[in-house]
Amino acid sequence: MANFTKQAIKASFMKLLNERPLNKISVRDIVEDCGINRNSFYYHFQDIPSLLTEIITEHTQQMIREYPSINSLDECFHVAFQFAKENSRAVMHIYHSVNRDLFETNTLKLCQSVVETYIATAFPDNRMDEGDQAVLVRFLKCQLFGMCIDWISDGMRDEAFADLRRMIDLCRGMPELILARSQQTQQ
What are phi and psi of 134, to 5 degrees? Predict the structure, then answer.
């Protein structure tokens, strides 16, 4: 029963977050929406920021588990942008709240995981120097994160996906080039 109540709280919160800004959601709104009392809310969560933290952290971990392999830069972007696109209003409300740092930290963590998975999947015989690989992961992670944040700060317009696709096309082959250069310097 406790898990059901906790899930109901999360579902109500996400529903409300898709309807209105974070600072316009109270514990009272959440408990009224899911039909529980305030004590039940406080049994599971200290406050709304702790609820938000758990939801974002769980979702980030779930997405990381769902993609044990990523074969292309296209797929990297798809994974990173999927949740934001499906929950665009909620994401915008979080992004424009005092909890933006929580969102950005978890987005960066997701980008890191996506890029590491991509490198491991796309280049299984990678003999890149460990330091060079760390630089490559950091470079691609920051590019992916920057594109995500730029897209969100620009209002998450669908038209931006054409630019993203073009950027991916222009960058095609870059990881392979970096890998080859790293291996050349090792010889």
Answer: -60, -40
- ∠ Cα 117 158 147 (to 5°): 40
CB 134 within 8 A of CB 115: no
The pLDDT tens digits of the residues spanning 7-26 come to 999 999 999 999 999 899 99
User: Model confidence at 124, in pLDDT bands (50, 70, 90)?
Assistant: confident
Hey, CA dihedral for 134, 137, 139, 142, is it positive or negative?
A: negative
SS3 47: coil
pTM score? 0.80
Of the options 3.40.50.2000, 3.40.190.290, 3.30.2160.10, 1.10.10.60, the CATH number for the domain spanning 2-44: 1.10.10.60
The whole-angstrom separation of Cα 96 and Cα 101 is: 10
pLDDT digits (tens, 9 = 90+) for 48-69: 999 998 888 888 788 778 878 8
Q: Is 124 exposed, middle or buried (CB count within 10 Å of its CB: 0-12, 13-18, 19+)?
A: exposed
- Bin 172: left if φ > 0, else alpha if -120 < ψ < 50, else beta: beta
